[in-house]
Amino acid sequence: MRPNIYFVSGIDTDAGKSYCTAWLARELAQNGKSVITQKFIQTGNTGHSEDIDLHRRITGTGYLPEDEEGLTMPEIFSYPCSPHLASRIDRRPIDFGKIERATQELARRYDIVLVEGAGGLMVPLTEEYLTIDYIAEKKCPLIFVTSGKLGSINHTLLSFEAIKNRGITLDTVLYNLYPTVEDKTIQEDTMQYIKNYLTRHFPETKFEVVPELT
After folding, report:
1. Are 7 and 142 spatial neighbours (Cβ–Cβ below 8 Å)?
2. Catalytic annotation on 39?
3. What is the pTM of this model?
4. Digit-coded pLDDT (tens) for 115-136
5. 11 phi/psi in degrees, rounded to 5
6. Catalytic residue among 39, 139, 164, 206
């Protein structure tokens, strides 16, 4: 178990992981923790990570020395797709050693490192290696992002099954209320359903509601 390195994943690529990662980092910092976020693999960018850009805007820190050093965005690929395809298109393999060294250096400097993944749990990093394999191998506690959009109960429960099957510690579920929806019927019912499910199947897991962006 890596007590100060948490992996952030979610139900899919539009779950709001970047927003929720930044929100959680801001909350932890306000509670006296030194915290930094990392995008371990960024696709669809060149030379910078748009997700790290968003993290810094929401946390209000501006760019950090670790951003300039490349520690928070160790692997960047140009095509906006899953890492296994982005790596193939850019004709270079993902350097997992480089990612690990960067994460460990951040963990040395900060109380908490929030590592944001790319897409959902089952997104392939290589032809035979999935994001969920990476989380299980590194023994990172998982922070999982879901929401109240139509279909999210199915995606969430399937993810929970996979998490339990791999023996991953589900530390926290973040329930994302952003973006704003006018009809909150599904959103409110889904929230209660997931909370009840966690009580029965993951009683140690924390549940946090991430408010709408203001």
Report:
1. yes
2. yes
3. 0.96
4. 999 999 999 999 999 999 999 9
5. -70, -30
6. 39
